[in-house]
TrEMBL record:
Domain annotation BTB: ranges: 32-100
Classification via CDD domains: BTB_POZ_ZBTB_KLHL-like
InterPro entries: BTB/POZ_dom (IPR000210), SKP1/BTB/POZ_sf (IPR011333)
Pfam families the record matches: BTB
Gene coding for it: LOC108041697
PROSITE patterns in the cross-refs: BTB (PS50097)
PANTHER family: SPECKLE-TYPE POZ PROTEIN
Name recorded for this polypeptide: Uncharacterized protein LOC108041697 isoform X2
SUPFAM superfamilies per the UniProt record, alphabetical: POZ domain
Lineage: Eukaryota, Metazoa, Ecdysozoa, Arthropoda, Hexapoda
């Protein structure tokens, strides 16, 4: 081990030791010299430690406006007791358990970090928020970011919305069943980010207008009054004045992942009894599925015929949602793609790709079943299969129970968050 590596290890050990000692001082209440009153609770701290972490605390305790009291008492009205304690604990120890926090708590912690200029905590909370965004909470998160003027949070939420939601039929179905009404400013911000009339946005603005009219006691004929100033005219999608233009997020890069090969097993034969191959997928994050890598057909053994090097592959891909009960059958397809007459070499990799606009967004809260279907013209075709790893890059593969092995070698996708 190099001298530099040893020095870094020793520095890390010293940093961890100091964090533990500071944490013990905080929990033990030793030598405290300031008190915060938060929601009828008292939080006792050390001015020097707080000031070393935050320029706001430094100005409060040692700046021109410092209190002359030996143990100043400060009232906190805009942060909850639980979040303020997490904030203080982070200053003393440098650690936050984000796994135990809901999205709303992370957003409030982000607000507190912004208030006290804690740059590292701001970055960490935005990463935690990104990982916790889902279809069910993105609209409330956008509303909070707009209403509270939190630009960093708005950027994170809008990037998620543009990548995972705006062109996603699954999100539209979710929103139809679980409509969320937001403020006019929030709708304006969404229109400003979209810059073009997506079908989802047109539908949502219509639903939002109906709900807004109802809440204001207006009739359908007054809808023009409600939508005035939203932006997005019929002839173009110009952003209304007064709304800050947001840059559309750059498309996420496309990556590929392959499963680890273990050993070969008997091939999969397409016939009347098995015209469909099934594979279940579960992701740890939102991804946009843009391609598959399969094993192509084995060269047919035709006595007396010249062996062909290529064939024309035709099949249909369906992706279905799987209910929470793993034994339940998959639902109707939420996405489909047809492959017609793709020139393919025997005994090679079969790459199936489609455009970004045609991609299927996979939600980490759901499990999916990939179904590969062939018509009667493919009966008798054999596809080599193998035992492969069930986990790759945070994506779990579960091959069908009725068949040993898999003909799916990997995926092509873009990480959306």
């Amino acid at each position: 081990m190099s001298i530099l590596a040893v020095d870094r290890k020793e520095q890390a050990n010293v940093g961890g030791l100091l964090s533990r000692r500071y944490g013990q001082m905080l929990r033990g209440g030793k030598y405290t010299d300031c008190v915060f009153h938060v929601c009828n609770e008292q939080v006792k701290c050390h001015k020097l430690i707080l000031s070393a972490a935050s320029p706001v605390f430094e100005a409060m305790f040692f700046g021109p406006l410092q209190s002359n009291e030996p143990e100043p008492e400060i009232e906190i009205h805009d942060i909850s007791e639980a979040i303020f304690k997490i904030l203080v604990d982070y200053i003393y120890t440098g650690v936050v358990d984000y796994n135990g926090q809901e999205l709303v708590a992370c957003i409030e912690l982000y607000y507190a970090a912004e208030k006290y200029f804690l740059e590292e905590l701001i970055s960490d909370t935005l990463i935690a928020i990104t990982r916790k965004l889902r279809f069910a909470n993105i609209m409330p998160a956008l509303e909070l970011s707009v209403c509270m003027g939190l630009d960093g949070l708005l950027d994170v939420c809008m990037t998620f919305f543009m990548r995972c939601c705006v062109n996603n039929g699954q999100f539209k179905n979710h929103l139809k069943e679980n409509y969320v009404h937001v403020s006019k400013e929030c709708v304006k911000a969404i229109i400003a980010a979209c810059k073009e009339p997506h079908k989802l946005l047109i539908w949502y603005v219509y639903e939002w207008t109906q709900q807004e009219c109802e809440e204001l006691g207006l009739g359908p004929s007054d809808a023009d009054l409600v939508v005035h100033g939203l932006g997005g005219g019929s002839s173009d999608w110009h952003v209304a004045s007064g709304v800050n233009e947001l840059e559309s997020p750059a498309p996420a890069p496309v990556v590929s992942v392959e499963r680890c090969y273990y050993k070969a097993c008997r091939p999969f034969t397409v016939d009347a009894e098995t015209p469909v191959f099934r594979l279940r997928l579960k992701c740890s994050r939102f991804i946009s599925l843009m391609g598959l890598v399969l094993n192509s057909r084995m060269t047919p053994n035709r006595m007396g015929h010249v062996q062909q090097l290529e064939y024309r592959e035709s099949l249909r891909l369906d992706i279905c949602e799987v209910p929470a009960e793993s034994e339940s059958p998959a639902t109707a397809p939420v996405w489909s793609h047809d492959v017609q007459g793709q020139s393919t070499k025997y005994n090679c990799d079969l790459h199936l790709n489609w455009r970004r606009e045609e991609a299927c967004v996979l939600n980490p809260e759901l499990s999916y079943e990939l179904q590969i279907r062939w018509d009667t013209s493919a009966y008798g075709a054999e596809y080599p299969c193998s035992l492969q790893s069930c986990q790759a890059d945070g994506i779990r593969f579960t091959d069908g129970d009725s068949f040993s092995g898999s003909l799916v070698k990997g995926l092509r996708y873009a990480n959306l968050v």
